[in-house]
Each structure stands twice: as C-alpha cells, then as structure tokens.
Specification:
The chain is built from 23 helices and 13 strands. With about 550 residues, it is an alpha+beta fold. The longest helix is centred in the N-terminal third of the chain and has 37 residues, at about 40-75.
Length: about 550
C-alpha cells in the first residue's frame, strides 16, 4: 500500500494533466507555465538594469563629448578654457554684453573661436563690447604709459607713423603695433592682460618661414611678396629701435622689445584690427584702427557677410560707446559663428596677413601675366600692361588685344621695310577692327601663351595630381597644409587656362566668347574699381603665381597710340 501511495504522490501532476478536459475548461485561456514565477521576474529585472546601465555607459560619454562644454557653461561652471572665462568675465564686468555666444578653444582648429550657445537669428546681436575696453587711440591715451611720451610726442614716431593715427595716416597702424608690443610685456599689470591672453602665442604666418619653406609653395611671386613684407617689418623695427628704448628709458625699463616681439605685435594688429570711427571732433569722417576683445575671435568664412561695427545702437548701449557684432546667418546652438574678413581681398592677401587661404572660395584666386620691361616699353600708354586669369581661366581680353596689336603692327613694319623707329615716325598703327579681324596674329599670340603654360607646368617640381594626393593624405600640419593649398589653387587655374587656350585655338581665335569656360564675373579680376586698363598693375603684388612673357619672336613691335 505504501508503494502505491508514494507512486500516486509522485505521479500527481502527471495524472492531473492527463485527465480529459471538459468543454468549459478547454475554452479558458491557457497561460504558459511559470510565466510569472519569481525567478522569471527577477531575471527580467536584472536584464532591465543591465540595459539601463549599458544605455548610460554608451550614451552619456557621447553626450558629454558633444555637449559637455555647453552644459558646463550653461551650469555656470565655465567654458573649460580659463583664458576664455577670464576674457568673458572682464568684458561683462566692464559693462559689455555677451548673449547667445561664448569663446572656445579648439587645438585642432588652430586656436580660439566663437560658438553659439543658443539659436541665433539672422542679424541678432550676440556681443557688444564697450569702446572703453577696446584698444585704440582714445583708450591708449587714457590708460597707457606709452601714449604721451612715445605715441604722441616722439619725433621719430611722428615722422614715421604720420599724423593722425589710423588708416588716414601711413596706411599701417604703427602706433597701435607699438602699444600692443609694450602693453603685452607688462603682463598682469596691463589693463588689457585678459585680452592678450586670448591671442595666439605665435600667429600663423608665412613670415616665420625659412627659405626652404618658401620654396615649398613653388611660387616665386608669392615668396617674393612674403619676404618683402617681412623685410618691411624689420625696416620699421630698425627705424624705431633702439631709438625708443634709449630715448624713453623710463617707459621701456625692464622691457625686452625684439624684432620677434615686434613682428608678433604687427601680425596681431594686421590680422585682428578693425576699421572704426576715430571720434575726432576736428574730422568727423576720420577712421582709426581698433582692437576689439572677444569679437576679434570670430573666425573667417568667405560666403557670409560682415555684420559688425560701431554704427548701430544695441541693447540700450549708445552706438558711440560700443562695438557690436550681429549674426551673419541663423546659427544653431553649438555651431561656430563666422564673419567675413572681406570678400574683396585676394587669396594672397589672406595668405600674407592672416596666414591662411580661405577654403572652398575661389573668387580671390588668380594668376598674372607680365611682359618683360623691354616689351612693356613698346606698349602704348594707358593700355593693359599686365593680364590676369581667375578661376575661370580666361585671360584679360584687353591684354590679349595689346599683344595681338603688337604683332599686327610688326607685320606692317616688316612689309614696309621699316625699322621700329621708322615705323614710329610714319605712325604705322593698327585699328581695333584690324586687330579683331587678324586671326593669324591671334593664333600666334594664343599659341605662344599655350607654350608658356605648358612650359610652366612642366617646370614645376610637382604636378597638380601629386599635390591633391598629398593634401588627401596629409596628417594635419598647418604650414604644410597652407603650402599645399597655395600650390593646388594656382595649378588648377593654370590647367584651366591651358584648356581654354586649346579650346579657343580650335575655335574662333579672335572672338572673346570662344573660351571653353563661362566667365565668372564675381572674380576679383573683373572688379573694374580694383583693376582696369589704367591701373592694370594694381593686382600684380597679389597674384598667386606670375608668368613672365618675353615673346621676342611674336612681339617685336610697338603699339602706337
């Protein structure tokens, strides 16, 4: 009996499950066995906690990486950069306004910039800096020990820097440069110490380069202009020093004014100073140079406008007492804010004075064509002495006309058996109609130019393809990046010129519309107020690359006015 009871107990579940179900029981919803068991509930909780932890382990670092600086700033914990924090506090304590923006430091970006901390609408003011905080002639006279004895009364400074201060004197802000070099060396004693800390320790500039680095840009014209600019700083330094330190020992006591420190100050002013109202009661229209803290940290972008100045009252601040900055477009929170340093400036100007060439913007790229002095002497007055070609590769038509006219006149000299001087006496000329109609002369000039372009490209140490590949493979190194950018930009123009010449030689050579590429009228080379027939050399010093022509075979004549 006992065994049967045990068997019954052991088989209770089996027996129960094996009973036939009634119709009512079969209609009940069946629940999976053990669905709500304590073990399953416990396991589900463990899985949920694990997923919760994994979510935070993965997403929180990503959020902190992306928004950590902004969160820290919004919580009043600073920007993460003590220099930015000190500069911001100094401006706010001085009565300034910083709203919707903040200073950041990005090593990969090469320095400091300004980002939006909230959504900024187009033309929304995000910074107002009182003029009392800015560094210009009025505040220097009020706050700097160098002002009266050196900047105002020293005869050498007066003679060298001219009078008055600012753009209306010599064109270079030497007084402001002297003040920057002096005040920076005061360190914490300077009223502008927080401002100087925000400036780069060594501004990016080719003026620091060695001769070997100049060779890397493969452009004798650009290297020449860079060295000339560097020499001009040295010449200024030699005029001013050691005269100033010897004439004013009480001012310069303990100072170490060197060519390097003077160059540093010059680059800071050239690259950061604004053109502002001088507030001169004797000349209401006079402008001056001004360094504006915080606002000068805004980086350049070519496609935007320039929305800053001292002409507009904002946030109740009188427009005569503040310098304001407005958003050039709509910016989302975290986006870097940009201003244009000037769309009318050439790429070489940016290279020389700012140490970079704007990316993705070819309006200011161009190369030049220059004839030798001997050939230029044969050209008529008030004619195109130089030619240019921008990103569209179209050579200045007036310059081409001048070259073709020389060939046409030479042919007349030869046919008449006259020398150059005899031709002048008989006033052998070529009318515009003759020049336009002479396809043979056009073909000779365009063919010569094509030979020069081919020769130039063949003589360069590297090809365009090699430079583009080197840029793609470059582990970012700023000076190297600038060198490659220069080379790529002018070589692209040379290749476009070559394609244009080949196309025109196969078309109507004497028709201006016979270029392969459409005219890019926004290019700087078409801005007649900058360069024109009477001022054809206006852009010579700002060419990325220059080709010197000496077409003795083709151009042997003098165009006669």
């Amino acid at each position: 009996g006992g065994s049967e009871v045990g068997a019954a107990k052991r088989g209770t579940r089996k027996a129960t499950e094996s009973k036939p179900e009634t119709a009512a029981a079969s209609c009940r919803p069946r629940m999976p066995p053990g669905l709500l068991s304590a073990r399953r509930i416990e396991r589900s909780i463990v899985y949920a906690e694990l997923g919760y932890y994994l979510f935070f382990l993965l997403t929180v670092p990503m959020l902190l990486w992306r928004y950590g600086d902004t969160l820290r700033y919004d919580m009043g914990m600073g920007s993460g950069d003590p220099v930015c924090d000190e500069l911001t506090k100094w401006i706010l304590d001085g009565g300034g306004m910083i709203d919707g923006s903040r200073c950041i430091f990005t090593p990969e970006g090469g320095g400091r910039g300004i980002i939006a901390t909230t959504r900024l609408s187009h033309r929304q003011t995000y910074s107002v800096v009182p003029l009392d905080l800015c560094m210009w002639e009025k505040t220097l006279k009020d706050r700097s020990a160098i002002a009266e004895p050196v900047l105002i009364n020293d005869p050498v400074v007066q003679n060298f820097a001219g009078h008055p201060w600012g753009p209306n004197s010599t064109g270079d802000p030497w007084r402001l440069i002297l003040a920057v070099d002096y005040e920076r060396q005061l360190g914490e004693k300077s009223y502008w110490s927080a401002f100087f800390k925000s400036m780069p320790e060594k501004p990016t500039s080719p003026l620091w380069w060695s001769d070997a680095q100049f060779d890397e840009i493969q452009s004798p014209r650009l290297a020449f202009e860079t060295i000339k600019l560097r020499d001009s700083i040295k010449d200024a330094y030699d005029v001013l020093f050691p005269h100033l330190t010897e004439a004013h020992p009480e001012v310069y006591a303990g100072m170490n004014i060197t060519l390097e420190s003077f160059t540093w100050a010059t680059l800071q002013v050239w690259g950061r100073a604004f053109d502002a109202d001088a507030q001169d009661p004797e000349d209401k229209n006079r402008r001056t140079w001004m360094l504006v803290p915080f606002i000068d940290l805004v980086n350049h972008q070519s496609y935007v406008g320039s929305y800053y100045g001292d002409e507009e009252a904002t946030y109740g601040v009188n427009d005569e007492n503040a310098f304001s900055c407005w958003a050039t477009e709509c910016f989302t929170a975290g986006a870097e804010i940009f201003q244009s340093y000037g769309s009318h400036k050439s790429s070489s100007h940016y290279f020389l004075y700012y140490g970079f060439i704007p990316t993705g913007f070819e309006q200011s790229d161009f190369v030049s064509f220059k004839v030798t002095p001997e050939v230029e002497a044969r050209f008529a007055p008030n004619s195109w002495k130089m030619g240019y070609a921008g990103a569209d590769g179209r050579i200045t038509e007036g310059f081409l006309h001048q070259l073709v006219r020389a060939v046409v006149i030479q042919r007349k000299h030869t046919a008449a058996g006259l020398t150059l001087e005899e031709g002048k006496e008989k006033a052998l000329v070529a009318s515009t109609a003759e020049v336009v109609a002479d396809a043979t002369a056009w073909r000779a000039v365009l063919g010569y130019l094509l030979e020069q372009i081919d020769g130039t490209l063949a003589a360069l140490p590297t090809t365009l393809e090699q430079d583009e590949k080197a840029m793609d493979e470059l582990d970012f190194e700023y000076d190297r990046w600038v060198q490659l950018t220069v080379r790529v930009r002018y070589k692209r123009i040379l290749h476009t010129i070559r394609s244009n010449l080949i196309f025109r030689l196969a078309s109507d050579v004497n028709t201006e519309s016979s270029w392969e590429y459409e005219e890019q009228s926004w290019s700087i080379v078409y801005q007649v107020d900058t360069v024109n027939m009477r001022r054809s050399k206006a852009l010579e010093a700002e060419s990325l690359y220059e080709i010197e022509l000496n077409p003795d075979v083709v151009l042997l004549a003098t165009p006669i006015a």
